[in-house]
Every structure is written in C-alpha cells, then in structure tokens.
Amino acid sequence: xxxxxxxxxxxxxxxxxxxxxxxxxxxxxxxxxxxxxxxxxxxxxxxxxxxxxxxxxxxxxxxxxxxxxxxxxxxxxxxxxxxxxxxxxxxxxxxxxxxxxxxxxxxxxxxxxxxxxxxxxxxxxxxxxxxxxxxxxxxxxxxxxxxxxxxxxxxxxxxxxxxxxxxxxxxxxxxx
Length: 176
What we know:
single chain; 176 residues; alpha+beta; four-stranded antiparallel β-sheet; rod-shaped
C-alpha cells in the first residue's frame, strides 16, 4: 500500500505573489501620471483661453472708445471749421468695405500704449434735408436749417496677443 504523500500543490504563500502586486502598482502609478498630465494640459489651455478672451475684450473696448473719441474729434472739427480730420478720403464709400488695415489711412492715433494704438478715421456717408423742417416749409424761413451730414467713424485697435477689434459708428451731424 502506498502511503499518503504530501502534495506540493497547496495554497500559495505571500512570497510567491509579491511580483504581481508590484506590476499592479506600476500600472496604477502610470495611469495616475497620465491623468495628471492631461489635467495639467487642460489647465494650461484654460489659462491661455482666459488670457485671449481678456485681450479680445480689451481690444474691443479700446476700439469702441476710439469710435466715441472720433465722434468728439469730428464735432470739434466741424465746430472749428477744420476739415483736416475728415477731409482725407472724405467719402466713406471708398473705404468702408476694405478688409486690410493700413494705419497710414487713419489720421488719428488715440490711446497709444507701446506698440498698441487705436486708429480712428472718418468719412462722409451722405447729406440731406431733414423732413418737415423750415427749408421744406417755404421760402423766407431762413437758410442752412434742417440739413444733416452722416459720417462713418471707424476705429481699429491692434491689441496684445494679436487681438484685433474694429468698431464702426454712424454719426449724424445736424447742420445749423
């Protein structure tokens, strides 16, 4: 008869499983590292997008304030009978659809800051009579009343980070 022999196929001890834990730990650390890099790239991208948005808003507001300053320049030029501000290429129809920006076409540079500046230009759009005024009412009511001149005021700003904004403002001046 044979005697029972001890089998070597019993449960494994912790010593024989230690290599598997090491491999799982390395894979887990690698996955955590990849996730950390992805989160870092996402946060850098969010910072760049926020800076770009800030630069674009700043360029827009400076161009908008340039258009408002342009209307003040225009009113002062008309009041002082000084047409040098709006006499260069006075017909806005000649340049209103231009897509390329040339700073030499803009006679006023406003809000200069380093290489940045807001460029302002004005052109005449139309002139006419205001309906229902004394000029149309009949002779003897005076001259020069009831006419208007419409201008296009364009303001262009090249801002930080390559941001660009352009604002057009239509302005109607009542001639008296």
